[in-house]
Amino acid sequence: MAAQPANAQTDTYRVVRMERFELDILGCGSATPTTLHNPSSQVLNIREKLYMIDCGEGTQLQFRRSKLRFGRLNHIFISHLHGDHCFGLIGLISTLGLLGRTGALVIHTVAGLENTLRPEIDFFCKDNPFEVKIEVFNPKVSEVIYEDRSVSVKTIPLVHRVPCAGFLFEEKQKEAHLLPDMIKFYNIPIRELAKIKQGADFVTEDGKVVPHERLTTPAEPARCYAYCSDTAYSEKIIPVIEGVDLLYHEATFADTDKSRAKETGHSTAGQAAQIAKMANVKKLMLGHFSARYPDNNILLEEARAVFANTVLANEGLREKL
Fold first, then answer.
1. Which NCBIfam families match (predicted)?
2. What domains can you pick out in the chain, each with its CATH number?
3. Taking the model in full, what pTM does it have?
4. Per residue in 174-189, pLDDT tens?
């Protein structure tokens, strides 16, 4: 066999552009409207597919301000049936109809939304050219409720005044990257490439085994994002969110209002940080801020005293994972 290519003896890596995994914050306030924040909503862009999480009032306006594309939104995940998390649905559905949408829109939610939203759709959006499907999940258990080639979505049981669940978005692990020079050098047939990407070695015509690691570079690690709002302090969620790249955890109250947080089924900033620390997450984002705090930096300071890598959510923020 001819001499090996110069890069065959070294760790040669292709420059691979990471596919998109971005979080857009459309709203991070709590129930009482303020001039600082919109009600809860965010959009996760995974490989150019958009997944909306909660849909508070005014979400469609924030969607436009973030320059997101309505046509790429096919799934909405509603954590619970408090108005600041779902009042924006009927307006968004109406707008999608006006834009000429034809593909189905799927809403994943706890039981009860069908009884309230369907009459609104039938009254205000009866001429819409697309179907709105409502798929109900059980908020008391952690289970996969949606899956496609890019991502799986698992529920996170939360502790609130009404049935409520968070969502864990786990990117599917991609296959290894082929090294073109090595594939050419060993004259590997096209039919073998898929197996090599999946981990198989290659056997040459003279019986020599070429290890998979010599023909590929590892794929980028799969990314994961956890959304936890609304919830009282609960260590039961830790096994579900262990080690995620980004945790969004509600921090409705400062630690001085811990009794109010417990009474209303919410968390303080310090409690959110404690969960992040115990779960060994890489980064914490606080949100669902109470209107009583004109400056959310008090929440940030309390959280950072427990978990340093903490940031505040804010409308217009785009976080790349």
1. PRK00055.1-3, RNase_Z
2. 21-174+220-320 (3.60.15.10), 177-217 (no CATH)
3. 0.89
4. 878 889 998 888 888 8
